[in-house]
TrEMBL record:
Gene3D superfamilies hit by this protein: Medium-chain alcohol dehydrogenases, catalytic domain (3.90.180.10), NAD(P)-binding Rossmann-like Domain (3.40.50.720)
Assembly and interaction partners: Homotetramer.
Protein's recorded name: NADPH:quinone reductase-like Zn-dependent oxidoreductase
Entries under CDD domains matching the protein: MDR_like_2
Predominant location: cytoplasm
Amino acid sequence: MKAVQFSEYGGPDVLRVVDAVEPHAGPGQVRIAVRAAGVNPSDGLKIRAGRWRDRPIPLPSGVGVEGAGIVDEVGAGVIDVAIGDAVFGYGINTMAQYAVLTHWARKPDCLPFDAAAGFPVIVETATRILAQVGIKPGETLLVNGAAGGVGSATIQLARYHGITVIGTASAPKHDYLRGLGAIPTTYGPGLVERVGKLAPTGVNAALDLAGSGVIPTLIALVGDPSRVLSIADFTAPQYGAQGSFAAQKNPERVLAEAGRLYSAGAFRVALEKTFPLTQAAEAYTLSAAGHVTGKIVITLP
Ligand SMILES: NC(=O)c1ccc[n+]([C@@H]2O[C@H](COP(=O)([O-])OP(=O)(O)OC[C@H]3O[C@@H](n4cnc5c(N)ncnc54)[C@H](OP(=O)(O)O)[C@@H]3O)[C@@H](O)[C@H]2O)c1
């Protein structure tokens, strides 16, 4: 099968489409014929650093942790899906013609494969951090870095639960944020004053999705450091804020819920751009530039 791999660490230009050995579904896994795979900034970090957290990444290595496609192998013990079913979920080396998924949900017929492929990481992350920061219906949440993949999911899930959201993005993306239900403002100097005008009674919690060195500013706005959380700034705990850096163990329920919300017209994620497998390097170059709106996805015929 064709797969995206890298045989040296570095920037996106180290990515190659190669002939690779097909994976097979182990116990509790399914294999899919991949129709689309989501691009995540963390993939690019792994390729560049050659390690993820404490674990070195062996060479050669594949790429991609999420995807959507048609089940073509079912591992021992799997009873919720069968060969021929359309699913989306977390997987191993999903930038390939075939990939093993470890956690999945059925894909609603109305949800296109390319959109579904970009759901797992952002839906799991958004659900986890909204719960962890303890924001409640009727409260106001500030989201820094709101126009990317995680931000797009976070705004919509928060709005669905009756939370007012103020989101930061560059000015050209403010209409995009409004369309998701957020009140937009720009990031950068003067954030405290701008947010103060938009929320005269204050914000109850804040999420940093950009890792742009704003934790002290967010704490100044919220007051209580424990109601400030970052997914991208490892220094957050030094300020008494929370960090959330590991996925929840069983995301199947939140994936299925995202599918239901999509079917009900309550959840959408813009696709900044889709690329064929042969242009994976271009896709990761665009991701690394750091200004994605929604998601970037790789599609396969
Ligand atoms: N800890 C976890 O569990 C976890 C899970 C998923 C992702 N992450 C990390 O979280 C981050 C966001 O992920 P993502 O998938 O949403 O990324 P993404 O889609 O690439 O998001 C990029 C967004 O960041 C915004 N941005 C860039 N510079 C900014 C700044 N200085 N201030 C505020 N916003 C800025 C951009 O908006 P403009 O174009 O308007 O600048 C763009 O919309 C990444 O670092 C990723 O690795 C962590």
